[in-house]
Amino acid sequence: MAATPVWSVDPRTGKQREQVAVEATSREVDEAVRAAHAARGALADAVVRAAFLRTAADLLDESAAHVVEAADAETALGPGRLTGEVARTTGQLRAFADAVDEGAYLDVRIDRADPALTPPRPELRRYKVPLGVVAVYAASNFPLAFSVPGGDTASALAAGCPVVVKAHPDHPATSELCASLLRRAAVAAGLPPEVVAVVHGFDAGLELVRHPLVTAAGFTGSIRGGRALFDAAAARPVPIPFHGELGSLNPVVVTPAAAAERAEEIGAGLAASVTLGVGQFCVKPGLVLVPEGADGDRVTGALTKALGETEPGVLLDHRMRENFIAGVSERAALAAVTAPVTPGSGGEHTVGAGYLTVPARALVEGTDGGAASGSSGHELLLEECFGPVTVVVRYADQGEAAAVLGLLSGNLSATLHLSAAETEGGAGPAAELIAQVTTLAGRVVVNGWPTGVAVAPAQHHGGPYPAATSHSTSVGGTAIERWLRPVAYQSVPDALLPPELREANPLGLPRRVTP
Q1: Which of 296, 408, 414, 479 is 20 to 30 Å from 99 at the Cα level?
Q2: Catalytic: which of 245, 384, 400, 500?
């Protein structure tokens, strides 16, 4: 059978640019995984791992112009956005190198023996060890920060796990370029280049998650694709953890007091957040609750003005463009739904931004109460629509807002816009809203916008299903925990313990000791 070519495509024209690779066969996936598995011992030295990550960051910075040019040619995200993404990506690599140096991620715990306790406690020493080969599934919308050199890869390598990346078909040339830089960094640090590998093709992705030597997987993408891989990971003879970021509506609630206080600011900010990256951020606000009445009208008026002035943009590929146009059209056709600014086709290769609006009572009756007599299709408004569109739900009172929030499944984020007075009280409606959205999301934002996920130790990028398939984060320092497992040593002589757990603490690691 002839090899299937992998093409780099220009989304601005829909034309093929160059053949980058061929789709990996089952044998080639097996070879890549086995080579990564054989190289895992080389990652055992923390000093070497940290040097590897910093060298990778340096090489990416040195090649930034080339990387940005390659990524822009096949994603149309623009040099400005992509230059920022290079900085985010190299910052992540250096942050994980710092985490390796610090050693707190190993979570070293020592319990001294105490025969006087009931029951007696033996000597126990616990830390975390790397799982093994990690499969990473690159995202479409972040060709760097959530792809080959991104957070999943960086955190897995920091943990001591070799990585095999399934490249995303929207940016194969960028993926190969970044992989070559990572492999150069590995060699410069004294590691075998096989600690990082890249494969292409849909079937290769399935082969990868099913491979017996793959011990965990990280994924960023759609609910449909992520759930299929999650199920495949669970159906293996030996199931493995699958850390997937799937889909999210990222609800926003604007309180009546906030609308009265700063309606125009909220409307303009919402438009900027919805259209950032042509609406292709996983934390784009997709459902916005705005109060009925004159103040709410001022919010939507500002939103209408800003979106109406937004130039058409190019999505990552033409399949996404077609799905966006079809999805918007289907939603706009629902009963009681109107389109003050009609989103959809902006030209042969572009899309136009816009928004839909629906009364809260129509949405609730059309999804919950309407289910008994047959669905009205309004459930579609509660699903993510990838691209520059949001749904504005007009509510009459807090009861209606709470009822709409009660329809939602898990989300990456939930945002509240409150008045100055509401932010000062420790109880009342604002506190009730905080409590309700905390059950829905992994990150709660007040008086800001969810787009822009800071890389920081306290960050959490995940949420209840379907936002994610686990309770871990894919951004921030604790992302490393996904690729580790704890091991406890009971009454093991000091000379036989791993260096991380020896009494003299030769590696100088932080540790928690119970006398």
Answers
A1: 414
A2: 245
Contacts of residue 125, Cβ cutoff 8 Å, sequence gap at least 6? 108, 109, 110, 111, 488, 489, 492, 497, 501
pLDDT at residue 374 tops 90: no
Question: Could you give the CA distance from residue 359 to residue 375 in angstroms, rounded to a whole number?
Answer: 17
Check 282, 384, 400, 422 and give the catalytic one. 282
Residue 242 CA to residue 163 CA, distance in Å, equals 14
- Specify which residues 216 forms β-bridges with: 134
pTM over 0.85: yes
pLDDT of residue 367: 83
- Backbone dihedral region for residue 14 (phi beyond 0: left; psi -120 to 50: alpha; all else: beta): left
**164-217 confidence digits (pLDDT tens):** 999 999 999 999 999 999 999 999 999 999 999 999 999 999 999 999 999 999
The CA-based angle 159-164-169, given to 5 degrees, is: 130
Structure tokens at 117: 């306790």
Does residue 245 have an active-site annotation? yes
- 400 assigned to active site: no
- Between CA 115 and CA 108 the distance in angstroms is 22
